[in-house]
C-alpha cells in the first residue's frame, strides 16, 4: 500500500476539491493516502455557510487509462478498475452510512479543468453484470457545478431510510373538521397540545405560542402554513418518541454575566405512516437556548417547539 498519491490522483482530487469548495460552497475533506477503504474524501454539504449535516463519501479515479469507450452504446462508457478491486471494495462502499459516489476525472481533456463524470456506487446499474472488472458511467452524469443537487438528493434518500418510524391513528386527526376553517380547528388543537413533553434524548420540550407564531408568521407561504396545520396530529408522537436529533442552524450567540448564551435550531425527523395518505418524512423544528459558564459547561438548556413541516416538499419521498 503506497503512502503517497500518484500524479494522476493528485490531479483528480484537486479537480474535485476545487468544484466542491469554490462552486458548491461546501467542504471537501481529503483522506490520508494510507487509507485503503476505497474512499478518497468526504463532501460536507452546507447551506448559507452552515453545515447541513449531509455528507457524501467520494472515490476519485483520474487518468485516461481507466476509460474504455463503447462502440455499441454511445450513451455511456466503462471504467476498468479490475475484478479484485471491485469485489474487495464494493462491500465496503455499501457499509458507509450514506451515499458513496465515484468521480472519474479524464485528465487528457483539459490541463486546467479536466472533464469529469460521477456514478452512484450503491446503485446496482453502476456495475456490469457480465464484465465484472468494469463500472458503467453515464455520459450525461457530468460532474461539476450543476451536479451538486443530484448528489445532495442522494444524501436525503439514504437518510430517509435510516429514520425512526412513527405510526399515526385516525384519532390523531379528529381535529380536522370540514365544516370549519382549518386555521380555527388547528388553533384549537394547538391549544390542546400545548404543554411540556419529555423527549427520550433532549428531555423537556415546551409547546407554547413560540411555535404557533413561527408557523403562522407573516411572509410564510400559505401552502406551507396549511401543511403545518395538517401535520399537528403528528407532533406529540414525534416529540415523545424520536430519539435522534440534528443540528440545523445557529440563530444567536452572545455574552451575558460571564456566561455564553447560544440559541440555535435543532430538529427531529421521523418517517411517518399516516392513516389517510401516503407515508412521508416529517420534520419537527425546535428552538434551543443554552447557557454555558466560563469553563464551557452547559448549565441550563431550554427547548421550544418551533415548526412542523414535511421534508422534501414537492419531491418523491423514497
Structural description of this entry:
This protein has helices spanning 7-23, 83-95, 148-161, 182-193, 209-215, 222-231, 235-241; strands spanning 27-30, 41-47, 50-62, 67-69, 76-80, 100-106, 115-120, 134-138, 164-167, 195-199, 203-207, 245-256, 259-273, 280-292, 298-310. Strands 1-2-3-6-7 form a five-stranded mixed β-sheet. With 318 residues, it is an alpha+beta fold. The model is unreliable at 313-318 (pLDDT under 50). It folds into two domains: 7-161, Trna Endonuclease, Chain: A, domain 1; 164-310, no CATH class. It contains seven helices and 15 strands.
Which structural class do the helices and strands define?
A: alpha+beta
Largest sheet: 5 strands, mixed
What is the CA-based Rg, rounded?
A: 24 Å
What's the CATH C level of the largest domain? Alpha Beta
| Nearest-integer average pLDDT | 87
CATH architecture of the largest domain: 3-Layer(aba) Sandwich
How many strands in all? 15
Helical segment count: 7
Query: Please, how many domains?
Result: 2
Q: Termini separation (Å)?
A: 39 Å
Globular, elongated, flat, extended or rod-shaped: what is the shape?
elongated
Give the percentage of residues in beta strands: 35-45%
In short:
This protein has 318 residues and is α+β, with helices and mostly antiparallel strands. 25% of the residues lie in helices and 37% in strands. The protein has 2 domains: 7-161, Trna Endonuclease, Chain: A, domain 1; 164-310, no CATH class.
